[in-house]
Design brief:
Layout (H helix, E strand, L loop, with lengths): L1 E6 L7 H15 L3 E5 L13 E4 L26 E2 L5 E2 L2 H10 L4 E6 L1 H14 L3 E5 L15 H22 L2 E6 L6 H10 L3 E3 L7 H13 L5 E6 L12 H11 L2 H9 L7 E5 L11 H19 L5 E6 L2 E6 H4 L11 H8 L9
Parallel strand pairs: 1-2, 1-6, 6-7, 7-12, 8-10, 8-11, 9-10
Antiparallel strand pairs: 2-3, 4-5, 12-13
Helix pairs in contact: 1-9, 4-5, 5-11, 7-8
Length: 359
């Protein structure tokens, strides 16, 4: 076998661990050739083809290394590729031809829902055999119980909340921390639970600023003059609940993000100093925590096993503690939102956190 491997979309802690596990399983135990493709699908285009052979020696130090040694991009959809003059063109057939010219039996595509949809289309439209490995720090793919990188992102956000707790208490401030989660609030929810946030604002529960302000006032009344609010980047006030996506985005952009929007809505209601911190891409960087290293390694090995079994068109997934495969057609069908009636939300409410709703 001669297999290509690439990473697409945003980076996440654990990408290199997947590459390492796949290469070791494929080359050492199965005797295959593995070729790394740089910068997602872009590395296959003729004008800048960047493909190099990977072996065990290339895997040294990768388990604990953040980012991806192959590089990645979220601007490389071969079905909708940007041209030099600003137009878009379909270059998928050219990419499929490159796979054939390189003698690759198939591609292992590590990435989020966008990367997996592209991979599935390549197989359906141009006959390129693919196996997918799910990656998103948002942990919002319905087909898998967990994705690597998520727990590392939660750990970074929790550490930030711990640090903000100290400075907020010292200065009697209301501190808002914006974390990633444009469409779902899994990072905000788990970091809020782990970091003892007083309010957790997520896209699934449009918040009422007055309810958040009431929580802050209640804390001040019992002698707790500071408050901690964690805000997912897609969280919006209840007043924007019915707004179309463009209007929501415009409101967030105008306010400088979700934390800025929340801060602006709270300032008229709270007689306290309010500060906002945007954690941003810090959540994507750094060494993966042990749990993500283990999950990424399991995913990489099972990806090789799927290829060996000829189970092209499937994506690796974790379900009920077991790593196996699921058809790509099913894997990208749905995003998994936070279950607003689920145990974690109930636990957060039980320990005093508010979601800014009427509950």
């Amino acid at each position: 076998m001669r297999v290509g491997i690439l990473t697409g979309g945003g980076d996440a802690p654990g990408l290199n661990a997947v590459i390492r596990a796949f290469v070791k399983r494929a080359t050492v135990q199965l005797g295959w050739e593995v070729w790394g493709i740089e910068d997602s699908f872009n590395g296959l285009f003729a004008e800048r083809r960047r493909v190099w052979r990977l072996g065990p020696l290339d895997c040294r130090g990768l388990l604990a290394r953040g980012g991806t040694v192959l590089g990645t991009t979220n601007r490389g959809d071969p079905f909708d590729y940007p041209s030099a003059h600003g137009s878009r063109t379909d270059r998928a057939a050219e990419l499929a031809q490159a796979v054939r010219e390189l003698g690759l039996d198939g591609l292992v595509c590590i990435g989020g829902d966008g990367t997996q949809r592209i991979a599935w289309r390549l197989m359906q439209a141009h006959g390129v055999p693919v196996v997918g490995v799910p990656k998103t720090i948002d942990n919002d793919l319905e087909a898998t119980d967990s994705t690597f990188g998520f727990q590392s992102a939660v750990a970074v956000a929790t550490d930030a909340l711990d640090r903000l707790h100290d400075t907020a208490e010292s200065h009697d401030r209301v501190m808002l921390l914006e974390v990633m989660g444009r469409d779902t609030g899994h990072i905000a929810l788990e970091a809020g639970l782990a970091g003892g946030a007083d309010a957790i604002l997520i896209p699934e529960i449009p918040y009422r600023p007055g309810r958040v302000a009431s929580k802050i006032h209640l804390r001040r009344a019992i002698g707790r003059a500071f408050s901690i609010v964690v805000v997912a980047e897609g969280a919006v006030p209840h007043a924007l609940r019915e707004a179309d996506p463009a209007a929501r985005k415009q409101a967030l952009d105008d306010a400088g993000g979700a934390a800025g929007l929340a801060m602006a809505s709270l300032r008229p209601l709270v007689d306290a100093e309010i500060r906002a911190v945007v954690l941003g891409h810090v959540q994507r960087g750094g060494s993966p925590i042990p749990a993500d290293r283990v999950l990424a390694t399991r995913f990489g090995v099972v990806a090789a096993d799927l290829v060996q079994a000829g189970r092209w068109g499937q994506m690796v997934r974790l379900r009920h503690g077991v790593v196996d495969g699921v058809p790509l057609a099913e894997a990208t069908r749905r995003v998994r939102p936070v279950d607003i009636d689920g145990e974690k939300v109930k636990v957060a409410r039980a320990v005093g956190a508010t979601f800014g709703d009427m509950a």
